[in-house]
């Protein structure tokens, strides 16, 4: 699994210097319209619009990569499942895409899946993401 993450992240490195601060981390940034996805290269954390996501999974396919992750609702167990897919060779004019679908607590679809086109990823120095909903719920449960 770490090999896939390492290969994925090293394959997508975009040349150029990134100004680093002590609190910033190397990341790939995907602009997918209203949804902004940040993939932290050293930790494998994925953030959507600045919030850490849960159930992160990296997969390598025949001609590209898929990053699966989920954004949970504050109550009720529903979540939005996301799949960010992209080719290893961005020069083939096949831009990344973000597939997302709202699911209920039993993983049944609440709506049809939608696809957002994404711009070519850029390498950035990103600050730490905000906690995920599951992390916030766990903190509330503890005390």
Explain what you see.
A hairpin with a 3-residue loop joins strand 5 and strand 6. With 143 residues, the chain is mainly beta. The strands form 2 sheets. A 5-stranded antiparallel sheet has the order 4-3-2-1-10, with no helix packed on it. Strands 5-6-7-8-9 form a 5-stranded antiparallel sheet. The longest helix has 10 residues. The chain is globular, with a radius of gyration of 16 Å.
Key structural traits:
globular; 143 residues; single chain; 14% helix; mainly beta; 2 helices; 42% strand
Reconstruct the topology from this structure.
Elements lengths: L1 H10 L13 E8 L2 E6 L5 E3 L2 E2 L1 E7 L3 E9 L6 E9 L9 E7 L10 E4 L4 E5 L6 H10 L1
Antiparallel strand pairs: 1-2, 1-10, 2-3, 3-4, 5-6, 6-7, 7-8, 8-9
Provide a quick synopsis of the model.
This protein is mainly beta and 143 residues long. 14% of the residues lie in helices and 42% in strands.
Structural class, by secondary structure, is mainly beta
Helix count equals: 2
* Main sheet characteristics: 5 strands, antiparallel
Mean pLDDT: 84
Helical content (DSSP H or I, runs of 4+)? 10-25%
The separation of the N and C termini measures 34 Å
Estimate the global geometry from the Cα principal axes. Answer: globular
Q: Return residue spans where pLDDT drops below 50 for at least 5 consecutive residues.
A: 7-22
Order of helices and strands: HEEEEEEEEEEH
| Sheet with the most strands: spatial strand order | 4-3-2-1-10
Q: In percent terms, what proportion of residues is strand? A: 35-45%
Rg over CA atoms, rounded to whole Å, is 16 Å
Strand tally is 10
